[in-house]
Amino acid sequence: MEFDWTEDDARHREALRDFLAEELPADWETISQHGPGGDAQAAFSRHFCGRMAARGWLTQHWPEEYGGQAASPWRHAVVGEEMWAIGEPRGAQYMNVNWIGPALMTYGTEAQKAEHLPRISAGDVLWCQGFSEPEAGSDLAALRTQALRVEDEYVINGSKIWTSYCNHADFIILLVRTDPDSRRQRGISVLLVPMATPGIEIREIPSVVGERYFHEVFFTDVRVPVSTRLGPENEGWQVVGHALQFERVGAARYARAAVTLDRLAAIAQERGLLEDPIVVDRLGEARALCEAARVLTYKVIDLRAKGSPPTADTQLARVLGTRADNAIGVLALEIVGPEALEYGSFADSNFRLAMTAGVAVGATEVQLNLIASRFLGLPRE
User: Fold this and answer.
1) Per-residue pLDDT reduced to its tens digit, 94-135
2) Which CATH fold topology does 248-375 show?
3) What is the DSSP letter of 62?
4) 218, 204 contact by CB (below 8 A)
5) Does position 221 have pLDDT exceeding 90, yes or no?
6) Burial class of residue 110, CB neighbours in 10 A (0-12, 13-18, 19+)
7) Residue 246, Cα to own-chain centre: how many angstroms?
8) Percentage of residues of the chain with pLDDT beyond 70
9) Looking at domain 129-234, which CATH architecture does it have?
10) What is the pTM of this model?
């Protein structure tokens, strides 16, 4: 079995690294430590993604008819690894190219594709994801935000929570209940809602994770055209399931974790900690987790490249990526020591970023349940 990259992909990786060296500002590490939701990083992402788009790199894995180059999923994986390793300068736009765009291609009307895909491909639009609710976090099927149809409009009432990036977003991809009498996965629809629509209120939730990272979004008699619906009415659960299979391996957290681990090993060596066999063992264990997450992610990408339908390998890759991220986040605190308590420091920022890994795109417990049922074939209670 061949695990190496093709010559073209290897050259593209080098070209990306040269591009990053040219485009990232001198204070990029400071900017990135505040997280993708920070004001500075959100502003920078518009400039940066525009520059990527000008080179044809932002959505190169998309079909040509939608602004891409029909590049393989492997080429997109190279981009994801290099972006996450350096602190994800695409900001929230990594969601656009990973799963929002593909969801539009599969379920969008021609008008929706014409409106949204060119802007995503050009790198000049920010999206956020309105899924979780105060009583429907990991259990999305318990959502209660309603969008009742009144002639050719939906009237939305409800709220979302833990919403990232919405303070800068132009649009929100919103999960709502369009059949008020429905339960669980039935009666759910997906709407593409402009954030400037009257009746939408955003409140930041202060947190230790990062600047402007979490928000509550309230919808009070928000009226949007029926044409904003993505996919059939009351069948949005299928749309969400399709999108999340892309998202769960869209963020190459293992690449960021591996870079952090290299830096930790260098710090440990400078401080003479490599003489401690326990430290060496912990570093080795963390490296193994990074490699396991990488290989499992590659398996998912290989299936996608071959046109195979999604499998529970996606959940396996997500869980390993989360464990690698968390293990290295904790290890950074231990190796760096008291300095890690300083907000915005190298170790502190990595630990805060790792905190989100086990919650975003479905809690780890949810992923484990899916592995149990879909991979191991265990019965549900």
Assistant:
1) 889 988 999 999 999 999 999 999 999 999 899 998 888 887
2) Butyryl-CoA Dehydrogenase, subunit A; domain 3 (1.20.140)
3) S
4) no
5) yes
6) exposed
7) 9
8) 85
9) Beta Barrel (2.40)
10) 0.83
